Give the backbone structure.
Amino acid sequence: MSKERKISVIVRSKDEERWIGHCLQSVLDHISVPEIIVVDNCSSDDTLSIVNTFQHDPMLNNHERYASTKVLTIEDYSPGRALNMGAKEASGDYILIISSHCVLRKIDLDMITQHLEDNIAVFGNQTPFYNGKRIGKRYIWSHFGEERVENMYSQMEERYFFHNAVSFFKKEDLINYPFDENLTGKEDRYWAQDVVEKGNTFMYEPDLRVDHHYTDNGNTWKGIG
C-alpha cells in the first residue's frame, strides 16, 4: 500500500464452521491489521469458536496472525440489516464486505481506493467451487468476467448487477446509502438500482478475486443446479 489506511471487514455468518476460518485467514493474508466484524445470526455450530481463534491478544505483537475481531449477534436477521449493523460498528475509513464462505485470492488496495474516488462501490470477481471442484461460470456466475465494467447491467436479471460477496465501500458512503433491511435476498441488486438512480456509479473490478465455495444456505447457489 502506498499509504496507511484502516480497513474494516464485515462478514455475515450462520453456521459457517466449514469455511469461515479460511475466509478470515485469507483476509489476514492480504490486508494488514484489519478490523474484522462478524455479524452472526445465532450460529449453533463452532463458527464463533473459530472466529475467536483470530482475535488479537494485545499482549502479543504478532499482527500477521491475528486481528481486532468483534462479534455482533443479530436475531431479527435480514441480509441488509446485518450489513448495516456491521457498517455502523466499523471504525475504518473503508469497508470490505466478504461472504463467510469466500476465500480472498487477489486484491490491490491502491487500485480499489482509486476506484472509490469516483465510484460509490467496487465489487469483485468470483470463481465458484462446488464441494472443492471448480465449476464453469454459467448462469449467475457468467457475470464475473475478465473486463472491468461500470454500472454492470444484467440482461439475465433485467436490472443492474452488483454482488456483495466481495465488495468495497467508503464507510461514509455505506452509512449514507444503507441496504434495504426489509428484503430477504438480492439486497445488493436493489441497492445498486437505488444508488444509480441517485446519480452514483459502481465498478466491477475483475482483479479483485475470491473463490466462492458452495454451502447449502448460499443464496448465490440456489436454482443453478
User: Anything to note?
Assistant: The mean pLDDT is 92.
